[in-house]
Design brief:
The complex is a heterodimer of chains A (341) and B (415). By secondary structure, chain A is mainly α. Chain A has a domain at 3-123 and 166-245. Chain A has helices at residues 3-34, 41-59, 61-88, 92-114, 151-154, 165-187, 189-199, 201-206, 211-236, 243-258, 263-281, 287-293, 305-308, 312-315, 319-330, and strands spanning 130-137, 140-145, 159-164. In chain A, strand 1 and strand 2 (140-145) form a beta hairpin. In chain A, helix 1 runs parallel beside helix 6 and helix 2 runs antiparallel to helix 3 (61-88). Chain B is of the alpha/beta class and 415 residues long. Chain B has 2 domains: 31-155 and 294-365, 3-Layer(aba) Sandwich (Rossmann fold); 158-287 and 368-401, 3-Layer(aba) Sandwich (Rossmann fold). Chain B is built from 13 helices and 15 strands. Chain B has helices spanning 2-24, 45-64, 83-95, 107-123, 157-168, 185-201, 222-231, 243-255, 271-275, 296-308, 316-331, 336-343, 399-402; strands at residues 31-38, 71-78, 100-103, 130-133, 150-152, 176-182, 206-213, 235-238, 260-263, 283-287, 347-350, 353-357, 364-365, 368-375, 389-397. In chain B, the strands form 3 sheets. In chain B, strands 7-6-8-9-10-14-15 form a 7-stranded mixed beta sheet, sandwiched between helices. Chain B is globular. The N and C termini of chain B lie far apart (51 Å). The chains are: A mainly alpha (341), B alpha/beta (415). The interface between A and B is large, with 43 and 33 residues.
Chain lengths: 341, 415
């Protein structure tokens, strides 16, 4: 594997992983604070993309980025206050079911308001070109800001790969968001109250803090994070009604692998899965290759050849779920899990 | 006596004339309902919605005047691109008394429908249904899985590959080809037929990659594009359609791939907009038509644009309804068995010249075109998706060049 391909695969994987992390972080926070597995989390991601699209059409992308997450957060907080809270006293399964129902309602509402077609949500003009170009000439590896230099066209055997500016922007937003959330939880008063309410809600309540309001803030905050991920994901990929479905399943795999309730676990798992999938797509090896490397003869007549010859690139999309199953078998609480079951 | 005879002769003559006229116009004035079974929601909703409008628009044009004097009416069913859902839709259509079905998006759904229609017709004589496949191009549907009740209007993958490779073998820029396709019957056939046909015509062309990805699931093609770059691909051959093609081209542009694309479906909704700002290389299409075919095509595409602010790219709707109305006129009936018998082997005027529905396998034999995405000019003024670009003819492939043999052993009714 040549170096520029390795670097680009790594960068693509990081970018996909960090986008996944923005989504997973909100979900795992809500779970760790409230014990609620929010099935509608990916739907808030979708709403964030659609709301940002509408705002972008009117006043531009930057306002969309600024206003869409708080709006989605308000939506989440309102849902918690008026619906989820009533179901809280019945236990975890009813809470799960109500969020499941919400996901369907949001899906149909989005289709009704914005239609079932994919929307042309583009990144802002300033971020449309490449941020930098990796220039690989025979024998050397270079790096240029902006568009590919002329050597790319003149030197034979030159491989130049651009890295889009908007992807880099998405990665930066994800990292900033992580830092901001971590600082909020560990350095501010409200963060300390939230952490305390996690393990000792009654004690915190008896100290005079409004614990239900804290829960509402956490739910709203988690939804706002999903909305932020939606703004980036919608412009980077596609904004369409099936976008919630596309990410919903992987996000659950991420938080189970990372450990439910652990922010650190969500980070490691999402970045790990993103990078693994990126490299897996680039690999055409199969089990048959591995067997042949050890000296065994594998031909189309061998028993089970159809399975041994499956390339890693063909199963790249299901690798997260394969890992999910393995984690559940060997380490059910996840990589950094703090809660049982 | 003479009066009686005259009266009898006149009465007989009048009766004969009425019967004759009646027979010729037996189907005239009737409304023929046709079920449209394709995705109207999900990742391919935009294509399905455009095609439904195309069918309804074509029906309107033909309803003004057609050989059979019938009125065509389309009833829409959303199959969500799923073969299973298509069978439910088919059952609902049959229950509603609809005897004609059109479908095209997805060879998986097409195979399911073709099989279901054949079995239904065997078990329900007198209630037969005819299935017109306007876009599913898996060759098996007119070979190992052929059926008397299935009529394919689009050229199948074996024909498109014959046409495409006959063009590509003469291009000096084609040296390292990378294949990327959707992981289902259509995608696999594109890959298989390209490799076979190219090996036969120009074995020096290297295949540097052959990827299959899940249908409608991949939202980020950047890893695939990185792989293409690493393999040194200069030409990408893909049967991808809809979002899978739009996102692939977007990713190729973002990463600066600069390879030429050889596609089937760059004309479908969303792709032209993604290509407007340039792709880094040429984008070529092998298709049954293009934006500058004189006559019906240039007339209808302008009217369609005015009415819907969208493009008419499923030209097969014209050929399908033309074939149906010709078939009904010759059969003097709207009964599916008689119409299917009339259509089998029928020659008729398509939008690009004379075409024939081959009797042996019900595959329409027609000319194909290699077109290239280029800026609009005086000779080719149409603007696709308002981009100022359109698909211009680079090579016309007559029907006999792309025609491929068939292994179909067709069971005909009454045989």
């Amino acid at each position: 594997m040549d170096l520029s391909f390795f670097l680009i695969s790594l960068l693509n994987g990081l970018s996909a992983g960090l986008l996944l992390f923005m989504l997973a972080s909100g979900l795992t926070l809500i779970f760790s604070m409230m014990g609620v597995l929010n099935f509608a989390h990916a739907s808030f991601y979708m709403v964030g993309a659609y709301v940002a699209y509408t705002i972008t059409q009117v006043v531009g992308f930057w306002w969309g980025l600024l206003l869409a997450p708080p709006l989605v957060g308000l939506l989440g907080a309102a849902f918690e206050r008026f619906a989820l809270r009533r179901v809280h006293k019945f236990g975890h399964v009813p809470e799960l079911l109500i969020t499941f129902g919400l996901s369907y309602i949001i899906l149909e509402l989005v289709g009704l308001i914005w239609g079932r077609q994919a929307l042309n949500f583009l990144p802002p003009e300033a971020l449309r070109g490449p941020l930098f170009t990796i220039v690989e000439l025979p024998g050397s590896l270079g790096f240029e800001w902006g568009t590919p230099p002329d050597i790319c066209k003149t030197v034979a055997g030159a491989v130049c790969t651009q890295f889009p500016a908007f992807r880099a922007f998405g990665m930066a937003v994800a990292v900033l968001m992580l830092v901001a959330v971590w600082l909020l939880l560990t350095r501010t008063r409200i963060g300390l109250i939230i952490q305390a309410a996690l393990t000792h809600p009654d004690a915190v309540e008896s100290l005079g803090h409004n614990v239900p309001r804290v829960f509402m803030l956490v739910f709203g905050g988690g939804s706002a994070l999903a909305g932020l991920a939606g703004v980036i994901g919608g412009a980077l990929r596609v904004t369409e009604p099936s976008m919630a479905l596309a990410v919903g399943a992987v996000v659950f795999a991420v938080i189970v692998i990372g450990g439910m309730g652990s922010l650190k676990g969500a980070f490691v798992a999402s970045v790990g899965l993103g990078v693994i999938e990126s490299f897996a797509v680039g690999s055409d090896r199969s089990i048959a290759d591995g067997l042949m490397a050890v000296g065994m003869a594998v031909t189309p007549e061998t028993l089970g050849y159809a399975v041994w010859s499956v390339k890693v690139s063909q199963i790249a999309a299901i690798l997260p779920y394969l890992l999910l199953v393995l984690i559940l078998i060997f380490r059910p609480k996840g990589l950094f899990g703090t809660r049982e079951g | 006596m003479t009066l009686n005879r005259t009266w009898r002769t006149t009465a007989l003559a009048a009766a004969a004339i009425t019967a004759f006229c009646g027979a010729a116009l037996a189907q005239s004035g009737q409304t023929v309902k046709i079920a449209f079974i394709d995705p109207l929601s999900g990742p391919f909703a935009n294509i399905g919605q455009n095609q439904l409008k195309s069918w309804q628009f074509s029906a309107e044009q033909f309803n003004k005047k057609n050989a059979a004097g019938v009125k065509f009416e389309f009833v829409a069913f959303d199959n969500k691109a799923s073969p299973q859902e298509s069978l439910n839709n088919l059952k609902a259509a049959i229950d509603q008394g609809i005897r004609y079905v059109v479908q095209g998006n997805g060879s998986g759904a097409a195979a399911a429908i073709s099989d279901a229609v054949t079995k239904h017709n065997e078990r329900n004589p007198g209630k037969e249904v005819v299935y017109i496949n306007y876009a599913a191009v898996d060759p098996d549907l007119t070979n190992s899985k052929c059926s008397f009740w299935h009529f394919r209007i689009d050229a199948d993958t074996s024909m498109k590959m014959e046409a495409l490779t006959s063009y590509m073998k003469d291009q000096p820029t084609v040296k390292n080809v990378y294949l990327i396709n959707q992981n289902y019957s259509h995608g696999m056939q594109v890959s298989r037929y390209f490799k076979e046909t190219m090996a036969r015509k120009k074995p020096e062309v290297k295949i540097v990659g052959d990827d299959l990805h899940p249908l409608g699931q991949v939202k980020d093609f950047a890893p695939f594009v990185a792989k293409m770059k690493a393999a040194g691909a200069d030409s990408i051959v893909t049967g991808n359609w809809g979002q899978d093609l739009t996102l692939l081209i977007k990713a190729a542009k973002d990463a600066g791939l600069n390879a030429d694309f050889y596609t089937y479906y760059a004309v479908t909704g969303g792709v032209p907009t993604a290509m407007a700002a340039g792709v880094g290389g040429k984008v070529r299409v092998v298709a049954v038509g293009h934006n500058s075919i004189p006559g019906t095509v240039i007339k209808w595409q302008d009217e369609f644009k005015k009415k819907f602010n969208d493009d008419w790219y499923t030209l097969q709707t014209y050929n399908s309804i033309q074939m149906l109305s010709e078939g009904m006129a010759r059969a003097k009936s709207v009964d599916p068995v008689k119409v299917a018998t009339a259509m089998s082997g029928m020659k008729f005027m398509g939008f690009a010249g004379e075409v024939q529905m081959r009797k042996a396998d019900h595959q329409l034999q027609q000319p194909l075109f290699i077109t290239e995405w280029s800026k609009a000019n005086a000779k080719n003024p149409y603007s696709v998706e308002n981009t100022g670009f359109n698909f211009q003819e680079v090579k016309a492939i007559p029907a006999y060049v792309s025609s491929t043999p068939t292994s179909c052993q067709m069971k005909r009714p009454g045989a």
